[in-house]
């Protein structure tokens, strides 16, 4: 082909400027080395760059004749598309996670430069208006106010001060839940903030006291380090093979099941229970009324601190069980006593404790038989053991091998106690009410049952008069005990089980 090219026609350029007429040239001219050098020199000459410090957004009628301006606009559009794709990737990467990772540093156009963007897919994590981002509270300059005239705002402004108090709540303890007050634009007054702050400090101190208290006392289903040490010593001494776990808890004690071991002077049952009396003084605040007026412990009670009284409480149950066992009443057999831990025989079989009368459903004949057993037991307890249970109810009587067994006698007192007959009347009311509701036709009312157990013949038309006569008898007993009560102290030596001596008995 001898000649390349055609005559250029004048046409309107889409870029807004007419094209220059291109002269026809031959192939030889194109391949000419001289022409190549000339073109290279022309390409190295660049026009003066315009000022690009201004915003890159132009109106529709802007001049687009500059190739540099077109390139910048195309680059900006490319950057926007890149940022849009980046936001999609970020949203896909984070998903529904509460902890998100931001791709902000990889963006080409940052929010402050992309204020006119109208993209629909804008993630709040990529913007300045993050609703979960804690903005710093508005601060005032050192002079204490901003603005002039009517628009002046001081550091005491209600809105400014309220937002600042809300932000300061973030400094509270982690366990104190303050919520997203900043995101809700919450404004707290000084009075409310100070009350919340004081409450936070009070809760921290209370939590510390409770934690320390539980470490140094026997709490529900748990024992303090000193109690655990006593239990370990019993296992190491061979008295117990192992301690299995907690059976029940009450207001005064925690009961554990254990496998029996051996003692030199007596046999240890195969299954035992450890009754650990709680050392928290507020668990059973009315202990003193059962023991301070008991002549057997009255002198010792006044000389002991409250924690040592709890050991005396365990000793009291040991002596009461020894009396009941000697009289033939069905009750746990005491193995050994160590401070506030009482080891007794287990009422039940194969780690399963015997059910309480309240829990078991007996037939009419068995229920009738249980009633007469309880009646006989109460008479033996009062007349032969010289004791009143003081907390007898269907919750403290077990049904085992077709017979009724009595437990929890730590609060039992003698009839000569200043409130002994009142306790007996309360026991009779509990027993009579339970068996009457159970359908036992032979069950006596509370007055007849009290007279049958105590042997007294108190006649009264109503309960108030009956209780008045009981209180009169108690007053007579109290005067008698004050004169000759010392002679009865010898009854404490009733052949009870041995005390487990130890060298650390001073605490």
TrEMBL record:
It holds the Pfam family RIO1. Residues 128-149 are annotated as: Disordered. Its cofactor is Mg(2+). Keywords: Antiviral defense, ATP-binding, Cytoplasm, Immunity, Innate immunity, Kinase, Magnesium, Metal-binding, Nucleotide-binding, Phosphoprotein, Ribosome biogenesis, Serine/threonine-protein kinase, Transferase. SMART domains: RIO (SM00090). Its EC number is 2.7.11.1. Signal peptide: none annotated. Interacts with CASP10. Interacts with IRF3; RIOK3 probably mediates the interaction of TBK1 with IRF3. Associated with 40S pre-ribosomal particles. It is found in: Cytoplasm. GO terms for cellular component: cytoplasm. It catalyses: L-threonyl-[protein] + ATP = O-phospho-L-threonyl-[protein] + ADP + H(+); L-seryl-[protein] + ATP = O-phospho-L-seryl-[protein] + ADP + H(+). This is Serine/threonine-protein kinase RIO3. Residues 212-455 form the RIO kinase domain.
